[in-house]
Design a protein that fits this description.
Structural class: mainly alpha
Strand content: 5-15%
CATH architecture of the largest domain: 3-Layer(aba) Sandwich
Oligomer: single chain
Shape: globular
Distance between the termini: 31 Å
Order of helices and strands: EHEHHEHHHHEHEHHHHH
Bound molecules: tryptophanyl-5'AMP
Strand order of the largest sheet: 1-2-3
Number of domains: 2
Helix content: 40-55%
CATH class of the largest domain: Alpha Beta
CATH superfamily of the largest domain: HUPs
């Protein structure tokens, strides 16, 4: 089914399960802002609190993290008038469509998800049922809006393929062309930002080592200290990206620079070839502080007005429901639920 039949609509989500990292910002949020500004799409962004509780969340931390994430979205440039910004649990249609998709998706599909295997680990018997069903709810997040485009980082690619499979199976099983086959949008220099301590590991909020990541709440001092201490190698920067293939830490810093400066990674090498890391890290640190410190300052300012954040989330949820409710009603009808 060609997605041109559907209104061009962007949906993406971030879990409020801890602080935002530079990986979330460059891989997702900054690109959400670009899509908001590009025009041509309706943009819908969600704090996926129902996904967060698939692993244990302290209730008061979850509330604080949801509000902080909302402040992060706004500080990064999401305008709650231009985009619809809300938290998932205030729009019950996500969980309702998620149930239908639990009955469409197959156990085997879920069991093949690498994030399930990584997160459940050897202790799958003890993982929550919600963690296993996580990707079906994610498909519902997207498809309850008939979203056509989903900007995400590289680590979400497999979940989006599953979303497409769920949409196709639903359409096929019921003989309809109801759900779009949504396009993943995984673009730019920073679709996989790596740990500052190990260039083969993803930068993650769950890494126990704080020095492995830049948090969006870090101040200028913390940002520059972490970049200065980032793992690198003794060789100068080469003139071509090919020569960075075996130097993952170096490649990561080049990608971060490129994404922050909004230039191609090769252009970073053109500017810095021959430089030693001591020097390049100073340039990267100046750039990172210039781009990120204003966001953390603005987040802190917004966090002082909790009522305003809650108001924005409530209003966003109302607008989201206006789109989601009729789509859910049609899906229920297609499946055979009596609506009286
Ligand atoms: P989450 O909360 O883990 O991450 C949010 C977004 O940040 C991206 N990301 C990264 N990008 C580049 N480098 C990194 N190191 C890095 N770490 C995280 C993620 O790819 C993601 O785009 N399952 C999703 C949340 C979700 C969702 C959705 C996304 C729920 N429903 C519907 C899109 C559409 C997740 O756990 O993201």
């Amino acid at each position: 089914m060609a997605d041109t039949e559907f209104t061009p609509r962007v949906f993406s989500g971030i879990q409020p399960s801890g602080g935002l990292t530079l990986g979330n910002y460059l891989g997702a949020m900054k690109r959400f802002v670009d899509m908001q500004e590009a025009g041509g799409f309706q943009t819908i962004y969600c704090m996926v609190d129902l996904h967060a509780i698939t692993v244990w969340q302290n209730p008061s931390d979850l509330k604080k993290n949801t509000r902080e994430l909302c402040a992060g979205f706004i500080a990064a440039g999401i305008d709650p008038e231009k985009s619809i910004l809300f938290n998932q649990s205030q729009v019950p249609e996500h969980a309702q469509l998620g149930w239908l998709f639990n009955c469409v998706a197959r156990m085997g599909w879920m069991g093949r998800m690498t994030q399930w295997k990584d997160k459940a680990g050897k202790n799958a018997e003890n993982a929550s049922l919600g963690l296993f069903a996580y990707p079906a709810l994610m498909a519902a997040d997207i498809l309850v809006y008939h979203a056509t485009h989903v900007p995400v980082g590289e680590d979400q690619k497999q979940h989006l393929e599953l979303t497409r499979d769920i949409a196709a199976k639903f359409n096929h099983d019921f003989g309809v062309e109801f759900f779009p086959i949504a396009e993943p949008v995984i673009e730019g220099a920073a679709t996989r930002v790596m740990s500052l301590k190990d260039g083969t590991k993803k930068m993650s909020k769950s890494d126990p080592a704080d020095a492995s990541r830049i948090n969006m709440t870090d101040d200028a001092d913390a940002i520059s200290k972490k970049i200065r201490k980032a793992k690198t190698d003794p060789d100068p920067l080469p003139d071509s990206l090919k020569e960075l293939d075996a130097r993952p830490e170096a490649r990561n810093l080049i990608n971060i620079y490129a994404a922050l400066a909004e230039i191609e990674p090769q252009a970073v090498l053109d500017q810095h070839q021959g430089a030693l890391f001591g020097h390049f890290k100073m340039a990267l640190s100046d750039l990172a502080v210039a781009k990120l410190a204003p966001i953390s300052t603005e987040m802190a300012r917004l966090m002082q007005d909790q009522a305003e954040i809650d108001h924005i989330l409530g209003r966003g949820a109302e607008r989201a429901r206006e789109i989601a409710a009729p789509i859910l009603a049609q899906a229920y009808d297609i499946v055979g639920m009596v609506r009286s």
